[in-house]
């Protein structure tokens, strides 16, 4: 929403020379180490929600130019407000916390009241400060607001900072109709993997967690409730500074945007991005949630543990499993969006499987699987996506795999048509399979050797790294997405292009399809035929808008006679 606040500058605690606190100058090493792991978070800061722009792709042309003018004006206004650059950061208040750095015992010993809520040293964390107002103004506005924390995934930092904290419905202490934003006074509680997800940086080969540090108005807290992470059952105390009975603080939303989404405004302001970096997976370190094996099993934390440095053929450390694999063969040669297929038994017998996933995307986890002398990649959805399948779509994981198969087969048809028309690099998709491993269903495909690259996402992000633009693959992947839209007469668009390139051939995996008929509402998920058929990363018209607003036609597009639909309309309006 336009009225959403971006974050105020970071706090000034502890202050040098006050009380019993030791304010030691922060060394650069921990901050620089955290900074190396932060680009993946900062890349999301400038993302603008485009859901309100979905009508830019109307069912008919009537009124299209008027809609374009209206929404271009709205987009320009939003972009003017949401520019995220160095001015939004306040490095003066960056800090590394713990012995040898900024450190104190007990509540912060300075004179800030913070609404009577103690502020304890977030030892082991590094803070990147955010700016909202001048430093001298910050004290007047927020000295009586307390510090609370909100664990999140790195990719959600940008939307939170640009749009604010969005309320959740029906969780824990909310009824079916009530909504709330959940915060906690404890950074250790907020860093539980359910909230502060563990993310691996392949460049530094380190693990990272992100928690947002916020100033909150304690006078508008709706409820203070006990922990919801089964601590009582296992006798765990996440934070000795706080009672387990007051670890969840709830705020009621006070603003509704044009899409009917509820936010908290003027009561929570994000003051910093807290980052904790470790050389080992946090599950292998001494965290309050990692040391009790029974608790780890109860929360299925090892299921989420990713070991990216595993080798694809380290069979001696893999578990023996019973496996059957079925190939999914395309039988349709008429309708581009049809899904006639035949399943053929590929293999049945014993195999070996890596003990932990070697990779994790936003929706799935991936394991190595060896069977019949071949190496496969076996995939399952993560817990967050499984909840979405159950609560929002009312389908099983097996049914979601079947939707994935349909998407792969349609993607392969697009690839065949591309290869017939484009004289350049050939394109193919790996063959989809369904595996049963020890009785559990997995999506499966053959393992591909080589350097994996993700060229774009289903939310419009484009990879401009040297690896991605090598051999003009960035242009080819974008042109292929454009081609699928035109070839389907605007019904669908294939996105999330990722895979490998070698010897003049691109091998793609994990495609997603945006369908024009899906307008984004929860009801459409049940009624829209194409949404029910294809994979769950379908963002419909909104996803198409994400693509068009970042796509620049290149030689491949022009060689195939592809025109950019939005730029053609803007040209008719006299726009740039």
What does this structure look like?
The chain is built from 17 helices and 28 strands. Strands 2, 4, 5, 9, 10 and 15 form a 6-stranded antiparallel β-sheet that branches. A 6-stranded antiparallel barrel has the order 16-17-19-20-23-22. A 4-stranded antiparallel β-sheet has the order 7-8-12-11, with no helix packed on it. With 576 residues, the protein is an alpha+beta fold. Residues 1-28 and 40-86 have low confidence and may be disordered.
What key attributes describe this structure?
single chain; alpha+beta
Percent of residues in beta strands: 15-25%
Mean pLDDT: 81
Total strand count, please? 28
Biggest sheet character: 6 strands, antiparallel
Q: What is the overall silhouette?
A: globular
Cα radius of gyration in angstroms: 25 Å
Distance between the termini: 26 Å
Percent helix range: 25-40%
**Low-confidence runs of at least 5 consecutive residues:** 1-28, 40-86
Structural class: alpha+beta
Note the total helix count: 17
Could you give a quick summary of the protein structure above?
A hairpin with a 2-residue loop joins strand 19 and strand 20. By secondary structure, the chain is α+β, with helices and mostly antiparallel strands. Strands 2, 4, 5, 9, 10 and 15 form a six-stranded antiparallel β-sheet that branches.
